[in-house]
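Quick one from the shared queue. A colleague (R.T.) flagged 5-methylthioadenosine/S-adenosylhomocysteine deaminase as missing a structural entry in our internal table.

Convert sequence to C-alpha cells.
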Amino acid sequence: MATQIDTLVTARWIVPVEPENTVLEKSAIAINAGRIVDILPTDAALERYSAGETHELGDHVLIPGLVNTHTHAAMTLFRGMADDLPLMTWLQDHIWPAEQQWVAPGFVEDGTRLAIAEMLRGGTTCFNDMYFFPDHAAEVASAIGMRANVGLIVIDFPTPWAQNAGEYIHKGLEVNDRFRNDPLISCSFAPHAPYTVSDQPMRQLATYAEELNLQIHMHVHETAFEVDQAMEQHGQRPLGKLSAMNLLNERLLAVHMTQLDEAEMDLVAGYGVHVVHCPESNLKLASGFCPVDTLLARGVNVALGTDGAASNNDLDMLGEARTAAQIGKAIANDPSAVPAWQTLRMATINGAKALGLDADIGSLEIGKAADIVAVDLMQPATQPVYDPVSQLIYAASRQQVSDVWIAGKQLLRDSELTTIDQEQLITLAEDWRLKINQS
Ligand SMILES: CSC[C@H]1O[C@@H](n2cnc3c(O)ncnc32)[C@H](O)[C@@H]1O
Ligand SMILES: [Zn+2]
C-alpha cells in the first residue's frame, strides 16, 4: 500500500548539494510535515507514495533554497537613492541621514516585505539580516513563511531603534526571547563593524554569544580605508583587535573581508571564522576584492551575500553566485578557481553552516526541512544541458526560478507569489519613494 505524504515534487534533475558533486536524474522529493522524507527515482516514488499534491516539473532542476548570508532587507526602499559612491561617503552623507529620518517599524515592515518578495522570486529561502527593528523584520518574514536570521544590532550612535549600547543589547535580547520558538526565525548578534562599536559592548556580545549560543554577524575589513583608519587610531588592524577581544572563532560571520594579509588568512582559517563574500556590493562601492580562492584552499567556510539593495542594487543570489565565480577566477588569475559546484555550495550549505542551521537547511537530504527551489532550464538561455550546475551558475537568470517551498509550504507557484500581494507591494514601494523624494 502506498504511503501517504503531503507533497511529491518530481523533476528532470535534482542537485542535492550533499553529497558533493551529485546530480540525480528523473528523481523526486517526498515531503511530509515540512520535511524531506525521501529522495528517489520518480518511477519508484510514484509507486511508493500517495501525495496530497504532486508537482511534475519536467525540465527543471531542483536545488536547496539559496541562503543569502548578508542582507539589510528593508534597504530595498533606498534602492537607487545614492549610487556610484565610495562606502564612507555613501554611508555618512546619504544612508545614515536617510535612516535617521525614515527608519521606523512601518518602513522596516514594508521594506522587508519587498525584499522577501524579490528574494523568493530569485530562489532565496533564508536570509541573514542586519537592520533596525529586527522584531518587525522577523514578524514579516514569519507571516510570509520566509526563513530568516535577524541581527540583534549594535552601533555606537543613537538611532530610531535604540539610544545606546545598553539599550541595543537589551532590546536585542528581548527579540531573541520573543522568537525563540518560531521555527522560521533565528537570531544572531550583529555589531555593525569594528569602527562603529566600542570595545566594551563588543566584549559583552562575545560573552552573551557564548551563553546564548548565538552567532555574531559583523562587517569586517570591508575597505582599505577601514584598515588604515584603525592603524592610525589604534595602531592595530581591525582583525587584530577582534582577536584580542576573543571574537575570532566559529561564531563569527565576517562580512566582506576584502583586505586580508597572509597572516590574517591563516588566523581566520585557524579559528574557523566564517567569511561572507558580497562581490557585487564590493564591486559597486569599489571596496576591494575578497581572496575567495585562497580562503577556500585554506579550508575557510565562505558563504555568499548580496548586502543591501542600496549598495548592490539587487537581492539576486543566482546573479551574485555568477559574479562570485567570475571574479574569483579573475582574482586568482586561474579559470579553475571558484568552480560552479563550489559556488553553489557557497550559496547554499556554506551559508547554512555559517548560521549554524546546516542540520536543517542548505542541502536536500532526508530529514532536513523542505526548502526547495525549482529552476526551469527549458529556456533558450539554458539549453542544451550538459551539466545543470554549469547552467545554474553561468547561464540561468532568476526569472527562471519557477517554484519555491520553505518548510514544505509553497511560497512561489509557477512564478507567482502565494503569500504576498505583489501588486499592493509595488504600490507601497512607490508610496515610499514619493514620501522620501518630497522630503
Ligand atoms: C546597524 S543596522 C546596519 C547598518 O549597516 C549599514 N550598511 C549597509 N550596507 C553596509 C555596508 O556595506 N557596510 C557598512 N554598513 C552598511 C546600514 O545602512 C545600517 O546603517
Ligand atoms: Zn552590509
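Residues 68 and 127 are 5 Å apart (CA to CA).
The chain has two domains: 3-64+369-417, 66-354.
Added to the table.
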